[in-house]
Amino acid sequence: MSFITVNKLWKEYGDQVVLENLSLSVKQGEFCTLVGASGCGKSTFLKMLLGQETQTRGELLLEGEAFPGEPDRNRGIVFQRYSVFPHLTVRQNVLMGLELEQKPWLGKLFGGARKEALEKVDAMLESVGLSPSAHKWPHELSGGMQQRLAIAQSLIMRPRVLLLDEPFGALDPGIRGDMHDLLLKLWQETGTTIFMVTHDLKEGFYLGTRLLVFDKVRNDPHDPQAFGATITYDLPIGQTDRKLFEDIHESVSETARNQAA
Ligand SMILES: Nc1ncnc2c1ncn2[C@@H]1O[C@H](COP(=O)(O)OP(=O)(O)OP(=O)(O)O)[C@@H](O)[C@H]1O
């Protein structure tokens, strides 16, 4: 059964068509990588999955029901930067979600409940390789460590859907490789359904299970906002050849040039 169903989905901001006629069916546990020119609506699509934005037309369904209109614990998101709390230590950053969930008014757990929560936090920190830094402050961490913390912060809530908006965009290429390994390991451990936006087409070609290319098939040079992007390629990872890579690269680059013109 389809876990997430996108049916003839449109998103417009005033006269600007951002996404047009998107249709997609995603199974639970899939790892979809989203690529496309800047401004093609990838982040907007993630925001709709998160419940921060609503479509203007069409359907977005989670297990056959309309998507919850507000963010909830079923969905976690990690941005390129700055999604951790600077005034909390690494351990407190990860603990906070559990505290707010169980004690929304007080924001604090005590006794056995706190001990149990801390055990989960420590296991999560171990899983992302941050145990030795548990008592550090975010500013004492490298960029890669901060992103591992942001991922831990999301995953501790056991989201059914994890949304990643260019999570490794600000990291050095060497560190990105380590982050890919970590992400694949966490995805296998948790079985969560992942949507990850990346600007790096190569990353999209090998990470996860499915590549979704967001692109415009129509362009009006006199009115660049008249047409939105749609999913032009939906490919299983590992079955694409060099020619296809070059075709997609050329098409996405042309859209980027048109957007900039
Ligand atoms: N809240 C908003 N109000 C009006 N326009 C918006 C809003 N959010 C996004 N847009 C517009 O929608 C279009 C798509 O933006 P979006 O951030 O989704 O693209 P993107 O593909 O994620 O781009 P990038 O790769 O640069 O992050 C842009 O033209 C943007 O200006």
TrEMBL record:
Keywords: ATP-binding, Nucleotide-binding, Transport. Residues 4-241 form the ABC transporter domain. One of its GO terms (molecular function) is ATP hydrolysis activity. Coiled coil: none annotated. Pfam families: ABC_tran. InterPro entries: AAA+_ATPase, ABC_SmlMolc_Importer, ABC_transporter-like_ATP-bd, ABC_transporter-like_CS, P-loop_NTPase. This is ABC transporter ATP-binding protein. The lineage of its organism: Bacteria, Pseudomonadati, Pseudomonadota, Gammaproteobacteria, Pseudomonadales.
